[in-house]
Amino acid sequence: MLPHAQITPSSPQVQAIPIADCGEPLLDASRSSLIRCGPPPECPETAPFYRLLRAGVLARLEQAQQHLPAGLHLRVYEGYRHPKIQQILFDAQWRRMQIAHPDQSAAWCYAQAAMLASPLRTFAGEPMIPPHSTGGAVDVDIVDAAGQPLDFGMALCDWGEVAPELCATQYPGLTDTAARHRQLLVEVMTAAGLVNYPQ
Ligand SMILES: C[C@@H](N)C(=O)N[C@H](C)C(=O)O
Predict the structure, then answer these.
(1) What is the distance of C-alpha 58 from the center of its chain?
(2) Cα separation, 20 vs 151, whole angstroms
């Protein structure tokens, strides 16, 4: 069993969770008076879906929002993601890893890419269901009263281009401010029953 600090969407204990549609509705987060939503991420094709979250996820986000200091708001970057978009994102990361690390094996590059974007198949070819394609995962940041994102050490939209280590929650090269903001986000989300992928 991997410790939480190493869990990724393709870890065995995550993939062991059976996924069956429970009928919980997908709700548009922009209808919430508490939660903010950013522009469509990744590509224009995400526009119709990216604000959709399972009702239980939206309720937990609203709960997490209550734990934030006044003037700060959770902002949805992306909730539901169509499997076709997920495949494009994973393939781009796998390609990026192979170009950056030509001496590494395909399996190593696959594992690195899988920490950044969930694959739709294991390296051995077994089908997998990416968390975002269930409506049960959400990417968020925090914005201030003027709608400006707090300093997290990187813009959320740059996840696919920055050094992968910078995407790890506890990257040691962060400024104190960025580390504090990441910690705040993890604390409020965890308090509401959500689980962070630390890498
Ligand atoms: C694509 C990136 N923002 C993201 O959501 N990554 C996680 C690991 C995922 O694809 O599930």
Answers:
(1) 15
(2) 37
In sequence order, what are the residues at sequence separation of 6 or more whose Cβ sits closer than 8 angstroms to the Cβ of residue 93? Answer: 112, 113, 116, 117, 160
Task: Give the ipTM of the model, two decimals please.
Answer: 0.98
pTM: 0.93
In angstroms, the Cα distances linking 27 to 19, 104, 151, 174 are 19, 42, 28, 34
Ligand 1 centroid from CA 66, angstroms:
25
Indicate the CATH number of 23-81+135-199 among 3.30.1380.10, 3.40.50.2000, 3.40.190.290, 3.40.50.300.
3.30.1380.10
Structure-block tokens of residue 182: 């990441």
Condensed to tens digits (0 to 9), the pLDDT of residues 121-172 reads 999 999 999 999 999 999 999 999 999 999 999 999 999 999 999 999 999 9
Indicate whether residue 89 lines ligand 1 (CB < 6 A): yes
- Cβ of 159 closer than 6 Å to ligand 1, yes or no, is yes
